[in-house]
Amino acid sequence: MNIDRLPLAPRRIVLALALAAFCFTLSGCGGSAHELPESAAGPRVPVAELIRQADEAYAGRADLNRVREGLKILRSARAQEPGNYEVAWRMARLAYTLGDKSKDDEERAKAFAEGVAAGKSAVTAEPQKPEGHFWLGANTGGEAQVLGPLSGLASAKELRQRMETVLRLDEDFQGGSAHMVLGRLDTELPSMLGGDVKRAIATLEQGKRYGEQNSLLRLRLAEAYLADRRREDARRELNFILQMKPHPDFLPEHEEATTKARELLATRFK
User: Fold this and answer.
1) Per the domain annotation, does 266 fall within a domain?
2) Would you say residue 60 lies in a domain?
3) 132 belongs to a structural domain
4) Which terminal residue of the chain has fewer beta carbons within 10 Å of its beta carbon, N or C?
5) With 0-12 CB in 10 A as exposed, 13-18 as middle and 19+ as buried, what is 224?
6) What domain count does the chain have?
């Protein structure tokens, strides 16, 4: 989680979660083309069907046009059922994906803002379910990255609280994704602002119990090992990423992890 680029300190807002992200064990199916919901003048498409179409769009998230299409679909669903939890958290997920991957700063800002609003709606509707907390945290981090350093520290606190709530509700949520986010937060946040690389390693190692095949989690663990000068442990994780068989539902996230793993092996292990 990539729930994976999330904000950290006022000095450097760096997260990308990879929320992932990344690496997240999210449900999805192959992305075949489909039509957008009919206009208000025609028959109303049932919300359950709109959710199915949005899930297809998310499965094709390597193409940002599919992500944009999915958001349009879910806006139609929210217009019908504003308090629907399943619609709200999926909207937050797609909004985060768009904000994380778009190259347009204005689009990114709007996407994260929409994701925060949708995440808050999901948490209000079902406070004891993990998806809303997770994607609200991811979008809060992404929004801070866009807004700039002054919002970073407060967002880091909010992000930590959301991910800790996810762990309390469902520790193995999405293959250790909440562990991944917390681990990256502690790796990249300066110690004077609450970061702790040894705590990051402990959190990520615990998350690996739930996300053995979570390539982004393993990448974050390798980065934490490098920060703690544990080079051989880092090398082991990076090589594992390059050799592992990716889950077919998470190929975009695995591609991101393998690209970064090759880069680290080339630059840090000459």
Assistant:
1) no
2) yes
3) yes
4) C
5) buried
6) 1
